[in-house]
Amino acid sequence: MPVHFRLTPTSCLTRLIPALAAAIVFLIPGSSFAADAFKMGVVDPQAVLEKSKAGKRALDTLKEYAATRQKLLASDEEELKGMEKQLKEQEATLNEQQKRDKQTQFRTKLQDYQRRAQEFNQELSAKQKELVDEYMKKISAATKTIAEKNGFTLVVDKGSENTIKIVLYHRDTLDLTDQVIKEFDKQNK
After folding, report:
1. Is residue 2 assigned to a domain?
2. pLDDT single digits (tens) 8-45
């Protein structure tokens, strides 16, 4: 089971709505809140996570965890297939009580396998959520450093094809993702 990390649309929207509201207030002509110089940038947090050294390490650790658990499940699956094959081969030679006993053993093993697979999926989801929460804080800190250093008033999550496409267009010069990746690596060695 491959592990795919994606920022959820909900996490993107909860960050986007306040940012867009702030942007609208600053962009309204004649607004008493209008800044002298409004400078806006965009960043792709998904790319920061996937391309930064610390992010890659975290994703690799999560993938290793998933691969280890998947191997355990694959082993259980092979054992189930062997039990099923053995049951079919011996079916003609077993009496009714022996058949019921073997079928009961198989069903119990199958239920255990299904329960472990479900627990694995829940554990993996929890670990992914933990990773997202932890790294979004770190990505936000790196973004803030870059924004303050370069005088940006607002930095918006541009989204991606795999989440929600938040920014429909931006000049390449507004994309701070590469700068944030460098800062993120500097802050998270």
Report:
1. no
2. 544 444 554 444 444 444 444 444 444 457 888 989 99
